[in-house]
Amino acid sequence: MLTLIRDADIASARLKASKYMFRITALFSSLLGITAPLVLSLIYAENIEAISPPPKLTAEQSTVAASNYQRYCALCHGEDREGHTNDHAPSLRSKSLMESGIAHQVLRPMQYGRKDTAMGGYLDEIGGPMTLDETWNLTYWLFEQAGYDRLKFSTNPVKGDIVRGESVYREHCTACHGVNGEGVSAPALYNQSALAHNTDEFIRHAIRNGRQDTPMKAYQDILSPTDIDSITAFLRSKADATQEQKTVLRKLPTPDHYIVNPDGEDPNFNLQDDLYVSSKDLNDALNSKRRMVLLDTRVTSVWQNAHIEGSIPFPYYADLDETVAGIPKDVQIIAYCSCPRAAADYTINKLRRKGYTRTAVLWEGIFGWMHLGYPVTRGDIAGVSD
Ligand code: HEC
Ligand code: HEC
């Protein structure tokens, strides 16, 4: 209905907004009974009309979604969706995300994850713990909890000067997002999964408006509209056209395969702070065939993509009484994750409370391990044979 300010140049949008405001407010509040604040918020939401909210959850769906959130997401995104509890997991309640990202920009990372980041996929189809309905309902639940209007975004490309965009990116964005868009204290902006899921308008909306209550500022106060378009076009140019690869699901290991090198000697690790083992020590112990149990504490779908050989999927949200059965108490257990330690620390603390004292956490996490050049076993890709 209201597409007042197309092609929004922010400065002129604001000027226009003040001109239109009176007329429109008068018109709408008399004709339709819509109040001024609503019209105002529609006008300032540059370019964009509101669309109807998604279907409302039933009380039961809402309860399940809330508990799924606590079980699967709170570890990194925070108990109250505030973000930045572990790693640099973004806020899942900022206005600019919740008004622009429902459903797909929130749903897709939840279902399929962001490759090579701590964000794994939670959909059962790729080896995660949630059903399709549960992922949709959790998306709607996040929207309801945040309590903002949903805006309609165009899927058209944002046009801009890529060369200019790169230089503005280098000046303003690398401190947090990294020289190669890899994410330092903020999301990885050249990430192929993110670029596959996020439309240009979604990206531009984030740059213009920032993410409320996070270090991400509203760059419409700092940069010109043309520069913001140029950075958006520059980020888009980082997407390669290759299809997302689909991993063939492996069978999960059975208890008789839990122990790596069952006949080997104990690794006798020297643990730092009585908890941490270095990648080098772990790699040496594996090479000299020591007896250990390796727990991959990430969401199981990422174990499917790549894991340290011999590790068993033992996600941080697992029911310990079920998963721990079959693991003897005398064997050295090492847990790892990608965040780089949060999920593994959490799991090992639970195990220690259950009397598993011969436990340790891989200090560098699996990404650190890989960066140091140590090997991982990768999943088979659909349609590719060797
Ligand atoms: C182990 C830590 C961890 C857990 C657990 C986790 N996430 Fe994330 N999540 C991240 C990180 C880190 C990112 C940012 C990755 C990047 O792009 O660099 C992220 C990104 C996201 C995004 C994209 C947000 C945006 O601003 O674009 C969504 C949506 C999301 N996570 C939802 C979830 C949900 C829902 C759950 C629970 C089912 C969950 N995450 C569990 C770490 C985690
Ligand atoms: C001071 C650190 C910092 C700087 C500088 C910064 N950002 Fe961010 N940015 C963040 C953080 C942190 C987030 C995640 C916020 C959240 O949702 O919790 C973010 C989120 C984003 C997102 C949303 C990503 C998504 O998947 O939802 C985009 C796009 C983005 N930034 C682009 C930029 C651009 C372009 C610049 C430079 C003009 C920039 N940022 C500068 C810290 C920063």
Describe the structure.
This protein is an alpha/beta fold. The chain has helices spanning 10-31, 36-44, 59-77, 95-100, 104-112, 132-146, 162-172, 174-177, 192-197, 200-209, 225-236, 279-287, 300-305, 320-323, 342-353, 365-371; strands at 50-51, 150-151, 259-260, 276-277, 292-296, 306-307, 312-313, 332-336, 359-362, 377-378. The strands form 3 sheets. Strands 3, 4, 5, 7, 8 and 9 form a 6-stranded mixed sheet that branches. It has a two-stranded antiparallel sheet with strand order 1-2. The protein has a two-stranded antiparallel sheet with strand order 6-10. Helix 5 packs across helix 6. The site of one heme C (HEC) has 25 residues, from helix 8 and helix 10.
> Quaternary status of these chains?
single chain
> How far apart are the first and last residues' alpha carbons, in Å?
54 Å
Strand content: 5-15%
Q: Report the bound ligands by name, code or SMILES.
A: heme C
Strand element count: 10
The SSE string, one letter per element, is HHEHHHHEHHHHHEEHEHEEHEHEHE
Kindly report the name of the CATH homologous superfamily of the largest domain.
Answer: Rhodanese-like domain
Residue runs with pLDDT of under 50 for 5 or more positions: 1-45
CATH-assigned fold name of the largest domain:
Oxidized Rhodanese, domain 1
Arithmetic mean of pLDDT: 86
Overall, the morphology is globular
